[in-house]
Amino acid sequence: MSGPDLGFRTQDRMTHDVWLPDETVAVRAQARAAVARHLAPVARDIGSREESVDSFAWGAFRGLADEGLFAVPFDKEHGPGLEFPMLATCTVAEEIAYESSSMAGVYDGQCILVPQTLAHAQDDVRSQLIPELTSGRTAFAFATTEPTTSSDLTAERLQTVAEPTADGWVVSGRKRWITSSCVAGWVSMLVRDGAEGAGATMLLIDLKAPGVRIGTPDLKMGHRGQITADIVLEDVHVPHSHVLGEPGRGMGVALSALVRGRIGIGAAGVGVAQAALDLSVDRLRTRHVFGAPLGAQQHWQFTMAQRATEIECARSLYQKAAMLLDTGDATAEPEAAMAKAYGTRLANDIVREAIQIHGALGFARQVGETGESVRLEEMYRDAKILEIFEGANELQQWIVARRLIGRDITG
Ligand SMILES: Cc1cc2nc3c(=O)[nH]c(=O)nc-3n(C[C@H](O)[C@H](O)[C@H](O)COP(=O)(O)OP(=O)(O)OC[C@H]3O[C@@H](n4cnc5c(N)ncnc54)[C@H](O)[C@@H]3O)c2cc1C
């Protein structure tokens, strides 16, 4: 067995799309077919290869784009113009993560974070760049993190500074851990505005511009398909036309992207959890211990029943958070924070249990003599980052606690 393509999904057998709009159900089917065609055949290779500029999975990336998945968040001018675009986009993220958590991370950047920043671009910039994004011809990056700050994004902490000039800005500094930066054409970047007391500004920066250098790709525990690297800027000129939103109001743009991104990562956690559950169910049905299938042990029956219930809760949470955004709630909190923290924690818990259920086979990359492998080793390496990036889970719990207990107490 090379992956979780078991011919069934427990989700389909058991639970019901009670209120999911028809358009979302259709996009889920579209995504599942596209993932099977373009991602599944190469997913295990993507999950294990060493990161380099050349290892970016252009084939899968463009295959998913060719099937229309990158256009899902966009309006009629650039995409399908769905009534609930965020719900559909997160559903795609779940489907991609079922096969490859790292490619869901790439999708989250390209199709959730960046589109939300481009929503603040001038019309001519949008007309030029959105077709590049939806076609997959060009990869896009989103950069807030720096070597010395990430969870704390207050403007004073940012060391990447844009000094105003007569025709725009000159930007210098360094961003770290930036997804797809080594292959991307453009980045939406949060910088400190050098003008006195001006706060932070979101700029669209051409990564081919003079003064831009991309660092060597980072070598990570997992998410090997989500290649990250530093972006170093030395006196990079950015024209006025490439401000995203208003100068000095970039934090709002960044946070509105990150709230969407965190729902997408919650959805990715659900996809990973679902894949681990399905692998576990298959093993419980087919592996025998003490003369009976492993699934005859009440311990695993109760454990799996509990996990199936939790996955359903996590899925409902991210769907509800996405629906809040789609119906005009600009914050989608606390559901967005709940969805991110709960879905990603669950992914880690279920992957760890799935390894336990598989015994040595779960721990192995490959059985030497037979070539047999399950992807749980990869999933275990991959799942951890879901709890850290796009707002560490402790930050999500802080967001929930602020509403629960009150900011006067929690800070
Ligand atoms: C694969 C990958 C892809 C990434 N892609 C991008 C990208 O495209 N763009 C980008 O800008 N960044 C990206 N990042 C960076 C990522 O967003 C940061 O790593 C993340 O926000 C955490 O920041 P940090 O690593 O600086 O940790 P820190 O900010 O130093 O936090 C470390 C830990 O401190 C704890 N912590 C922080 N604040 C609190 C608090 N208030 N209460 C309690 N505990 C707290 C948390 O446990 C947290 O994990 C990526 C990182 C990785 C590994």
Describe the structure.
With 411 residues, the protein is α+β, with helices and mostly antiparallel strands. It folds into three domains: 10-139, Butyryl-Coa Dehydrogenase, subunit A, domain 1 (Orthogonal Bundle), CATH 1.10.540; 142-250, Butyryl-CoA Dehydrogenase, subunit A, domain 2 (Beta Barrel); 251-410, Butyryl-CoA Dehydrogenase, subunit A, domain 3 (Up-down Bundle), CATH 1.20.140.10. It has 13 helices and nine strands. It has helices at 10-14, 22-48, 58-66, 85-99, 101-118, 123-135, 250-286, 298-326, 335-358, 360-363, 376-386, 393-405, 407-410, and strands spanning 139-143, 161-165, 168-179, 184-193, 200-206, 212-214, 228-239, 288-289, 292-293. The strands form two sheets. Strands 1, 2, 3, 4, 5, 6 and 7 form a seven-stranded mixed β-sheet that branches. Strands 8-9 form a two-stranded antiparallel ribbon. Helix 4 runs antiparallel to helix 8 (298-326) and helix 9 (335-358) runs antiparallel to helix 11 (376-386). The protein is globular, with a radius of gyration of 21 Å. The chain starts with 9 loop residues before the first helix and ends with a helix. The mean pLDDT is 96. The structure holds flavin-adenine dinucleotide. The site of flavin-adenine dinucleotide has 20 residues, from strand 1, strand 3 and helix 12.
